[in-house]
């Protein structure tokens, strides 16, 4: 099979999460003709990133690992760095539009792929925790001379950004949380545990159609644009490739990490300024379809969750987008980036 590379840099940032527990929904309108179906390697071999990839080699839990990352230096630096943390099943590449905007405003931008994701190592055995991923990221930043940074995370990356801020408060100038998940403890409110084996079974069923249908309804408020499609194929391509099993296995471990390691109870401990950028049409909740029918409508209520989160974080600023879903940076990039740049601490 011929493996097409990523479409041109004209595509704006698209960060999305696919929750494989949600059944595909029929589309109310036909989508544009999809791309040819690519097949990528287990470390996303064959998929082109918008900026040069570097690799940080290190040993963790007795295993030799590498983290792929982009380190984009601006033409006119303002002396500050933003670290971008991607969401579940997404990649550093999906920050393309945000990297361009931040770099154009003078920020150095570091966008890693976490272990278990995209172009980074997918180990056969690894005890995933947000603490471990934060430590890995901190070691990467130290290796390239970044001491202090604005830490920006989307979705699951928002949970990781919170953990990073709690572990390294003196080195976190500000947190920016874009539609973070983990604003509620799903286990505590009644979502049952699926366990790693069940997650693995579900992940093996991942297809482009399921990803596309879920994103259309949850992330883009039942709309679709052709520029969203390459990111669907980026993820689906790994599940068509020769490393499908190891990709699915690491994804299952990561879902279990998300479910079992809530950060919501520690929001009051954050000491740095926190900018919340939240599309209120979002309904994301891990394992929602496995929850009892009576509680499903209460999960992922972002209008309420956004207000609760802003109240619980001492130095929070909430900017909401009432007409947007889980990926406001895609639905209206110009409006989103305008609010982002306006909200960064000086």
For the structure shown, list the relevant keywords.
eight-stranded mixed sheet, 11 helices, 33% helix, 8 strands
Count of alpha/pi helices: 11
Please state the CA-atom Rg, rounded to the nearest Å: 18 Å
Biggest sheet, spatial arrangement of strands: 1-2-4-3-5-6-7-8
Order of helices and strands: EEEHEHEHEHHHHHEHEHH
Explain what this protein looks like in three dimensions.
This protein has 346 residues and is α/β, with parallel strands linked by helices. The chain is 33% helix and 15% strand. The longest helix has 17 residues, at 244-260. The protein is globular.
Structure in a nutshell:
The chain is an alpha/beta fold and 346 residues long. It has helices at residues 96-104, 130-143, 156-167, 186-189, 195-203, 208-218, 229-240, 244-260, 302-312, 328-331, 333-343, and strands spanning 54-60, 63-72, 81-85, 108-112, 149-154, 172-178, 274-279, 316-321.
Question: How do the helices and strands line up, and which of them pair or pack?
Answer:
Blueprint: E1 54-60, E2 63-72, E3 81-85, H1 96-104, E4 108-112, H2 130-143, E5 149-154, H3 156-167, E6 172-178, H4 186-189, H5 195-203, H6 208-218, H7 229-240, H8 244-260, E7 274-279, H9 302-312, E8 316-321, H10 328-331, H11 333-343
Parallel strand pairs: 3-4, 3-5, 5-6, 6-7, 7-8
Antiparallel strand pairs: 1-2, 2-4
């Amino acid at each position: 099979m011929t493996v097409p590379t990523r479409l041109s840099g004209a595509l704006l940032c698209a960060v999305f999460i696919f929750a494989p527990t949600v059944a595909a929904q029929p589309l109310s309108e036909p989508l544009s003709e999809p791309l040819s179906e690519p097949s990528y390697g287990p470390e996303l071999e064959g998929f082109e990133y918008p900026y040069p990839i570097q690799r940080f080699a290190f040993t963790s839990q007795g295993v030799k690992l590498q983290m792929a990352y982009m380190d984009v230096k601006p033409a006119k630096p303002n002396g500050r760095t933003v670290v971008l943390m991607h969401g579940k099943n997404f990649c550093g590449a999906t920050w393309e539009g945000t990297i361009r905007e931040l770099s154009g405003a003078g920020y150095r931008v570091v966008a890693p792929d976490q272990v278990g994701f995209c172009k980074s190592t997918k180990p056969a055995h690894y005890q995933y925790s947000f603490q471990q991923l934060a430590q890995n990221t901190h070691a990467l930043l130290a290796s390239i001379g970044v001491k202090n940074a604005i830490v920006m995370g989307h979705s699951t990356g928002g949970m990781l950004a919170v953990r990073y801020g709690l572990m390294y408060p003196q080195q976190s100038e500000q947190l920016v949380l874009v539609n973070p998940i983990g604003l509620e403890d799903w286990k505590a409110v009644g979502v049952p545990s699926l366990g790693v084996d069940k997650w693995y079974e579900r992940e093996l069923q991942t297809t482009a159609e399921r990803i596309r249908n879920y994103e259309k309804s949850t992330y883009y408020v039942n709309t679709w644009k052709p520029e969203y499609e390459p990111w669907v194929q980026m993820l689906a391509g790994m599940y068509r490739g020769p490393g499908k099993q190891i990709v699915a296995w690491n994804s299952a471990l990561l879902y279990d990490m998300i479910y079992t390691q809530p950060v919501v109870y520690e929001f009051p401990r954050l000491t740095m300024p926190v900018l919340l950028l939240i599309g209120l049409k979002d309904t994301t909740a891990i394992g929602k379809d496995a929850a009892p029918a009576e509680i499903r409508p209460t999960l992922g209520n972002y209008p309420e969750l956004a207000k609760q989160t802003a109240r619980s974080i001492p130095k929070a600023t909430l900017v909401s987008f009432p007409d947007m879903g889980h990926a406001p940076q895609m639905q209206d990039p110009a409006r989103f980036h305008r609010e982002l740049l306006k909200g960064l601490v000086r």
